[in-house]
Structure formats: structure tokens, C-alpha cells
Design goal:
It contains eleven helices and eight strands. By secondary structure, it is an alpha/beta fold. The mean pLDDT is about 95. The structure holds cytidine-5'-monophosphate (C5P).
Length: about 230
């Protein structure tokens, strides 16, 4: 499985995202489309970006009863996305149903990745709000293992968890890691960050990079720097 840099295209309109992607006249970046853009621009934006030659990670984090998730995944799969995701908290049965829904008539399907515990959830909130008393690192690893048991392809995780996930679930189980920053760049609101080179070193399979590219004075140069550090 090839390593790649995924740009988090956190824009809220079709015009903005297409103007941004117009800048990339060479290598076509892998694009992450999240809830904000999908809910504002609709499924058409996925088709349009796909038609321009980009791979797409559709980051909608599904979580519902297995039957609903299965049918929804079938709809998303028909948009010809390359990767999509769900919450592992929906249980193994939900994840298995999602995988079934994703398989296209020709037998192909997008990669399916699980979110374990959101990085915005602290140990304290998990214990008080969710009544989960175990250490959050154990919960993350348990959810990753559940995703593996359900047949999923990998998890979204912090670069700092990537090695542990590979140790528990195997080196082919994909780790998709946000929280990436250049050594000389702004950290912003991300707390535990790694450079693209460090993420490569510890075995991340895909890095998800947003503002270090989208807010750069020269986004194409910033993207090329990520590729040079992480992929080449
Ligand atoms: O701009 P930045 O590089 O921080 O963007 C990171 C992207 O990855 C955003 O789309 C953010 O929502 C997403 N993400 C994250 N941390 C997670 C899961 C997803 O930053 N744990």
C-alpha cells in the first residue's frame, strides 16, 4: 500500500475548494472532503473533484444502526470515493455491515477506516460522560482491534499511536494520521504534532494535512514539501 499525503480541504464552498485545487497543475493530491464541504456543496462536489483526477477520502464518520450504515455506505461507495470512515464505537456489527454495504457490483470497494476515540475526548470526559473507566490508550487500541476483527482496513489515529496500532493489528493495518506540522511552522490548535518526516519514520501510512498546506502562502510548494518528506 503506497504512502500518500492527503490534503484536508476544509473549505465551505465549491468555489473555494475548486479554486484551491486549480493551483495543482502537476501531481494531483489525495483530497479529504469533510462534513462541512459535503453538507454545503453536496455529493456533486465529490463527483467533480473525482472527475479532475484526485483520489478522495470522504470523512463523514458514520455512526448509526448497522442497517442504516450499510445502506448509506452503499450510496457513498457509488460516488467512487477511495476511502471513507465511521466510528468504531458503533460496534463490530455496525462495522461489518458498513463493509458489506461498500462492496460495489464489480467487487471493488473503497478503503474503510475507523475513528477510535476522538482526540477531542479527554480521559476525564470519557469517564464522566461515557462511563468508560479504562485508560484512553487502552480504549483506542481496543477499538482499533475491533476494527481489525470486523475486517476494516485501518484507523485514523495520532501519529504517536501509529506504532502501537501496527504492533497490535499488524503492519498492513493502515494508520491515517492528522496532527502534522512542519518543523518550522505554526502548530495552531493541534497539541501533539509530528513533522511529515517523523510520521514516515514511525510508520504512518497516510498523513492528513490541512492548514500547513491550505493556509500556506504557496500551497503547492507546501504540498510538495510534504510529499518530499513523507513519500519520496
Ligand atoms: O489543519 P489541520 O492540519 O489541523 O487539519 C487536520 C485535519 O484532520 C482536519 O480536517 C481535522 O478535522 C482532521 N482530524 C484531526 N484530528 C483527528 C481527526 C481528524 O485533526 N483526531
Amino acid at each position: 500500500m503506497g504512502k500518500d499525503v492527503i490534503i484536508a480541504c476544509d473549505f465551505n464552498s465549491k468555489e473555494e475548494v475548486l479554486a484551491f485545487l486549480d493551483k495543482f497543475t502537476g501531481r494531483k493530491p489525495y483530497v479529504k472532503i469533510g462534513m462541512e464541504l459535503f453538507y454545503s456543496a453536496g455529493p456533486e462536489i465529490v463527483k467533480e473533484i473525482k472527475a479532475r483526477g484526485h483520489k478522495i477520502f470522504l470523512d463523514l464518520k458514520l455512526h448509526d444502526i448497522p442497517n442504516t450504515v450499510k445502506k448509506s455506505m452503499a450510496v457513498l461507495s457509488r460516488l467512487d470515493v477511495d476511502m471513507c470512515n465511521l466510528h468504531a464505537g458503533g460496534t463490530i456489527a455496525m462495522m461489518e455491515a458498513a463493509l458489506e454495504g461498500l462492496v460495489r457490483p464489480d467487487g471493488t470497494r473503497p478503503l474503510l477506516i475507523a475513528v477510535t476515540q476522538l482526540t477531542s475526548t479527554s480521559q476525564e470526559r470519557m469517564e464522566a460522560d461515557l462511563l468508560i473507566k479504562e485508560p484512553i490508550e487502552e480504549v483506542v487500541m481496543h477499538y482499533a482491534h475491533n476494527a481489525k476483527l470486523a475486517g476494516l482496513d485501518g484507523v485514523v489515529c495520532s501519529p504517536r499511536e501509529a506504532t502501537a496500532v501496527h504492533n497490535k493489528c499488524g503492519k498492513d493495518f493502515l494508520t491515517v494520521t492528522p496532527g502534522v506540522r512542519f518543523a518550522d511552522g505554526d502548530v495552531g490548535d493541534q497539541v501533539r504534532v509530528m513533522t511529515p518526516a517523523q510520521a514516515k519514520e514511525i510508520g504512518s501510512d497516510y498523513i492528513v494535512v490541512g492548514r500547513p498546506i491550505t493556509a500556506a502562502a504557496d500551497p503547492v510548494a507546501a504540498y510538495n514539501r510534504c510529499v518530499a518528506e513523507f513519500v519520496d
